[in-house]
Design goal:
Length: 226
């Protein structure tokens, strides 16, 4: 039996095991497989690991998208989170080329993916508060927002959550150094149902549970007495 003799449900299941590039390559072989590639049901979850991936035409954006993850792990990409005055010429050139890549992509998501349920951004140094605000407005069903090492995110994002994050249940702002303790306390006050985590944010103060924080304080006092 040839693969094209399988029904659509079987083909969708097979495609689900492939990465984005493999799906695109398989779709080039015939019209039937291209139709499967273009089926929205295949694109409910998207993961990206480099700026270049966002520009490839190997995926579809649409109302079916429920979960989106954009995480930079490359050592070269990490330079975008270094202060400008610390960068060498190569680092500045590299960051400049990708400065608006993620922001432009997220604005496209705002316009085309209203049913988004979860968003994870890690190392996206050029994403701004306004970009997150637009997402919260255009994706009212968003339940999980996880931000890590997004250096331009400030208390304005936390404030936007209080106004437009009615469905939000999980909020992480780890290593977001421009988020303040006052902003975190405001979230706890106005959105008590949101599970908040802010490791190494708010002047590098970890967001510990009250009992854990108390234990740390006791340990610290004991150490000073010794």
């Amino acid at each position: 039996m040839h693969i094209t003799q399988l029904n659509r449900e079987c083909l969708l299941h097979l495609f689900s095991f492939l990465d984005k590039n493999s799906r695109k390559n398989l779709a080039k072989t015939c019209h039937k497989l291209l139709e499967v590639f273009q089926d929205p049901l295949l694109w409910s979850w998207l993961n990206f690991y480099s700026p270049v991936e966002l520009k490839k035409k190997n995926f579809l954006l649409g109302p079916a998208l429920k979960h989106l993850s954009i995480c930079w792990y490359s050592e070269r990409v990490k330079v975008c989170n270094i202060e400008d005055w610390m960068k060498n010429s190569f680092q500045k050139d590299f960051c400049k080329r990708h400065e608006n890549t993620v922001s432009d992509f997220l604005l496209d998501v705002c316009n085309r993916c209203p049913n988004l349920l979860s968003l994870t951004l890690s190392g996206c140094g050029h994403v701004t508060d306004d970009c997150i605000l637009q997402l919260l407005k255009n994706c009212p069903n968003l339940k999980s927002l996880k931000l890590e090492n997004c250096v331009r995110i400030t208390d304005h994002t936390l404030e936007a959550v209080t106004f437009h994050g009615a469905s939000l249940r999980t909020l992480h702002v780890d290593f977001c150094r421009n988020v303040t303790k006052a902003g975190l306390e405001k979230i706890r006050e106005k959105c008590p149902s949101v599970m908040l985590r802010a490791e190494r944010s708010a002047n590098m103060i970890p967001d510990s549970k009250p009992e854990k924080k108390l234990m740390l304080e006791k340990a610290s006092r004991k150490f000073v007495q010794l």
